[in-house]
Amino acid sequence: MARMTSTPRPLLNRRLAEFGTTIFAEMSALALSTGSINLGQGFPDTDGPEEVREAAVRALRDGRGNQYPPGPGVPELRTAVAAHQQRRYGLVFDPDTEVLVTAGATEAIAAALLGLLEPGDEVVALEPYYDSYAACIAMAGGRRVPVTLRPRDGAFRLDLDELRDAVTDRTRLLLINTPHNPTGTVLTREELTTIAALAVERDLLVVTDEVYEHLVFDDAEHVPLASLPGMRERTVTIGSAGKTFSFTGWKVGWVTAAPGLLSAVRSAKQYLTYVASGPFQYAVAEALALPESYFEAFRDDMRSKRDVLTAGLAEAGFEVFRTAGTYFVTTDIRPLGESDGIAFCRSLPERAGVVAIPNAVFYDHRDAGAPFVRFAFCKRKDVLEAAVDRLGRLAR
Ligand SMILES: *Cc1c(COP(=O)(O)O)cnc(C)c1O
Question: Which ranges carry the Aminotransferase class I/classII large domain (predicted)?
Fold first, then answer.
């Protein structure tokens, strides 16, 4: 007998059902339809260095990377990544067995989680999280366990006791992000030392997303977790050319890790994209060898942009949290008489002609993130000044 048809089975599987469409699609569409200034999605509105673009053109013309590059990435880039880690942090990685090139940090995150997790493994991650973390943990069959960063003395801070309490016998790895998107927090050497000690004590793996390693301001310092005692052999470090060189469309990222860990990540990565971004890999190899003056000028420029936006948001009546790193600033909208960041961001284009992102979408505990709104400052000064001028309407 034919089976009675009831409600049809949903097409999207259960692992991904909760994830819907990212907020960025909705907000970028709103920016377009209202002619708003888009400080939502975090991509620069100016391309990276001319000589790096030229290097990509040269590679393309010379036929380097136009066909499948080697699975782990072209040797020039793997060598350049290793040299960068050694020059900056004194970390020595073998380009052949300890460096893997990926399709952006996004693929590195996915491959690390897919390669290292068994179904049911718990992943302790800092909340609010970068939007792909939750989805990738779910795709890998893992369970996410958030530890919430909370405002303290004008910035978002990690409660180390809460982190310790979140670790159970089922915890397989800590997923760390510093400098932290969206809060702009940079974990201190003391905090990272405590995290490292916890990882060693509980024998945990650590995946650390350090794509903003070069965007650290004032007296903040970027300390790679892999550089701390006992961490080199248990840490997967993720970097990306997108944020460091302002080429987010090139999708060149990388992983550095001890051979066993790297091999696990590579096992997953080879069945995701296999390879990507051939000619761009050669260009990024040259970019990583740019003189220190490039990195300094890049950081100084972003810092002055941060200052323009921070001052403007405060003037407009927001509470503004201190950004020590990344190119985002998180605000609290309660001084404006608002409490729901999602509703606020939906109305902001109409009210002020500016688009921002509600941090609530980066939380499991939506209530904890409700009043916080993120603005990106990786935009031209004149764009930021126009945005600030428009946001002034909120105070008037
Ligand atoms: C932008 C970003 C990424 C993704 O980097 P891609 O190289 O563009 O894939 C990963 N993590 C964080 C925290 C980011 O902000």
Answer: 37-391
Gyration radius of the chain over CA positions: 21
| Centroid of ligand 1 to alpha carbon of 107 (angstroms) | 9
β-pairing verdict for 372-376 and 328-332: antiparallel
Mean pLDDT of the chain: 96
Tell me: pLDDT of 79 over 80: yes
DSSP of 46-75, one letter per residue? S---HHHHHHHHHHHHTTSSSS---TT--H
Report which protein residue has its CA nearest ligand 1's atom 1: 243
Locus of tokens 């209202």: 34
Residue pointed to by tokens 């946001």 = 391
Q: What residue ranges line ligand 1, CB within 6 angstroms?
A: 104-106, 130, 177, 181, 209, 211, 240, 242-243, 248, 251, 253
Q: Smallest Cα–Cα separation from 146: which of 161, 131, 134, 132? A: 134
Q: What is the pLDDT of residue 25?
A: 87
Region 230-255: what's the mean pLDDT?
Answer: 97
What is the mean predicted confidence (pLDDT) over 180-203?
98
Which residue in 207, 193, 198 sits closest to 161, CA to CA?
Answer: 198
CA of 110 from ligand 1 middle (Å) equals: 11
Give the residue-averaged pLDDT of 36-54. Answer: 95
Distance CA 185, CA 325 (A): 6
Tell me what the mean pLDDT of segment 31-36 comes to: 93
